[in-house]
Design goal:
Strand content: 15-25%
Structural class: alpha+beta
Number of strands: 3
Distance between the termini: 9 Å
Shape: globular
Order of helices and strands: EEEHHH
């Protein structure tokens, strides 16, 4: 399943997730934001179960912000799963 999410409160403008039927993340792509961090997050979560990604990254903040690209990824995963 492919899912596109518009993050809020962060520099990235779009998060695209490809989820396998078994709940494993195939790939993640960020548009905008810090390309190094986004690429690193994308590589680290590829092949991981969504539950593990959410439990690890949910609530992560960026500087004074109350969220981060990693946290927004967990929100994107939760939104994608709710749509299934």
């Amino acid at each position: 399943m492919n899912y596109a999410y518009t993050p809020r409160g962060v520099c990235s403008r779009k998060i695209e997730i490809d989820l396998a039927d078994d709940g494993v993340i195939r790939s993640v792509r960020f548009t905008g934001g810090c390309s190094g961090n986004a690429a690193g997050i994308s590589k680290l979560v590829a092949g991981m179960p969504v539950e593990q990604v959410v439990s690890t990254l949910k609530g992560n903040t960026c500087g004074p912000r109350r969220t981060s690209c990693a946290d927004q990824l967990t929100r994107a995963i939760e939104a994608a799963r709710a749509e299934i």
